[in-house]
Write a structure and sequence with these properties.
With about 150 residues, the chain is an all-alpha fold. The chain contains 6 helices and no strands. About 5% of the residues have low confidence. The chain binds heme C. The site of heme C (HEC) has 24 residues, from helix 5 and helix 6. The site of heme C has 24 residues, from helix 5 and helix 6. It holds the Pfam family Cytochrom_C.
Length: about 150
């Protein structure tokens, strides 16, 4: 009979810690920029449909996604495991959910070390690159199209 002999004070303390902990987590998960949740921000960034073949190349080269993710790209030797494996990511998320994670993962987790690939307010960028994004809009669409094929 677990729990029945637990002193009330201990139980109350445990409950308080649990409630405060949950509130804390909810606070941290709060979107940094609520406008990203608007339907328009979840929609494709361009009119042109993403190309998964180009997306795969961008993931390897310009995006350097393999630094942190294991992906089904056997010709590349080094895959990091700082982030979750992406082998089945296309079956777990819709294109809109994938897009959001590539555009600005900090909306979902402000503490994430994953870079925001389509955010123009990056901190201390090199002179002349202020206001630019890591990836261009069409490149984001290509990457999303590629990730969607990972099922
Ligand atoms: C510096 C490391 C790093 C790089 C580079 C990086 N990511 Fe991530 N990524 C992460 C981490 C860590 C997470 C886990 C999310 C979190 O931290 O909250 C993640 C999560 C994700 C997710 C969600 C996975 C899931 O199962 O929830 C996707 C999709 C993703 N990354 C795609 C990409 C793509 C595409 C690129 C390249 C354009 C990329 N990442 C580059 C670290 C990285």
């Amino acid at each position: 009979m677990m729990g029945t002999s637990l002193p009330r004070a201990v139980l109350a303390l445990a409950l308080t810690v649990a409630v405060v902990g949950a509130a804390d987590a909810a606070q941290r998960k709060k979107p940094a920029d609520p406008s990203i949740w608007e339907p328009t921000r979840r929609a494709p960034l361009t009119e042109v449909k993403g190309d998964p073949v180009r997306g795969r190349v961008i993931v390897i080269k310009k995006g350097s996604c393999l630094t942190c993710h294991v992906m089904p790209i056997p010709e590349e030797a080094d895959h990091g495991d700082i982030g979750p494996p992406l082998a089945t990511v296309g079956s777990r998320y819709t294109p809109a959910e994938l897009r959001m994670r590539v555009v600005d993962p900090k909306v979902l987790n402000p503490d994430t070390i994953m870079p925001s690939f389509y955010k123009s307010t990056l901190n201390r960028v090199a002179k002349g690159l202020e206001g630019t994004t890591f990836l261009e809009a069409q490149e984001v669409e290509d990457v999303v199209a590629y990730l969607s094929t990972l099922k």
